Amino acid sequence: MTERLRIALQKKGRLAEDSFSLLKKCGLKFSIRSGGLLARVKNLPVDLLLLRDDDIPTFVATGAADVGIVGENVLVEEQLSSPSKLDADIDIRLGFSRCRLCLAAPSGGIIKSPGDLNGTRIATTYPGVLGRYLSKNNITAKAVEMKGAVELAPSIGIADSICDLVSSGATLEANGLAAFVSILDSEAVLISSSRALSPQQSEIYHKLCSRIDGVLKSAETKYIMLNAPVEKLDEITALLPGSDSPTIIPLAGTEKLVAIQAVCTENIFWETLEDLKALGARAILVLPIEKMMS
After folding, report:
1. What is the largest CA-CA distance in the chain?
2. Which of 39, 77, 231, 289 has the fewest other C-beta atoms within 10 Å?
3. Which domains does the chain possess?
4. Bridge partners for 48 per DSSP
5. Residue 221, SS3?
6. pLDDT per position in the chain (294 positions), as tens?
7. pTM for this predicted structure
């Protein structure tokens, strides 16, 4: 019987949806049932374990799951809060579900910088990360641990400031708060433990990592095609962002123009297209790349 690779995922929320989308872009075929805790991938020996986000690092560390996708903020908090070293580390940074863990206080209040925190109370759901920051910066403040609705703490007198996740900042603004320092930048990460996988599981995991790498690279990569005057060839190819040597093809019926095709691994901005056109490039096409493998 083929051994199956168990991947721990957040069961709901934005990170969950982004994780499901990533795996489907990697070619995994599965369906998620409402309230279900397990989803079996149909075309690979992979099982998806659907968990609370703060359970994922522990599942990976203890071997209940082989690997997992979790927010870096959750991983770091669990590492700092665990009574013993948590055997779970980052394999791949996935680039989605980005956010910041910030300190924030009432707008117009007396707390405007980290130095103002001495002798105050800070509400948070991340006591481990907050404690590390306070210790490193020699700040004496009391962490008030909450399970949710942290942004309400100053208005109801529970704390003087908060330490919470910020993405757009709209929630802070709606509650009359302003962030004054960021203490952790976070994104979704693929994690594993130091425990060795079986040969079959290892083969599946390497295949999955290769596909994830291809999806991540293709998201930032574009295929550009254009016709260019021969005398401007060097200047035009120099403008193509992050590309290897482009493919250059003579055009039928003329010796003055060539076709250029290139894979660009950096963003192509409108200004780049305008500069290419100014050098005589024409019929410029910028196309997305769905899949990519080095």
Report:
1. 80
2. 231
3. 5-95+188-218 (3.40.190.10), 99-186 (3.40.190.10), 220-288 (3.30.70.120)
4. 7, 39
5. coil
6. 568 999 999 999 999 999 999 999 999 999 998 878 999 999 999 999 999 999 999 999 999 999 999 999 999 999 998 888 999 999 999 999 999 999 999 998 999 999 999 999 999 999 999 999 999 999 999 999 998 889 999 999 999 999 999 887 788 999 999 999 999 999 999 999 999 999 999 999 999 999 999 898 888 788 999 999 999 999 998 888 776 788 999 998 888 899 999 988 777 788 889 999 999 999 999 988 877 776
7. 0.83
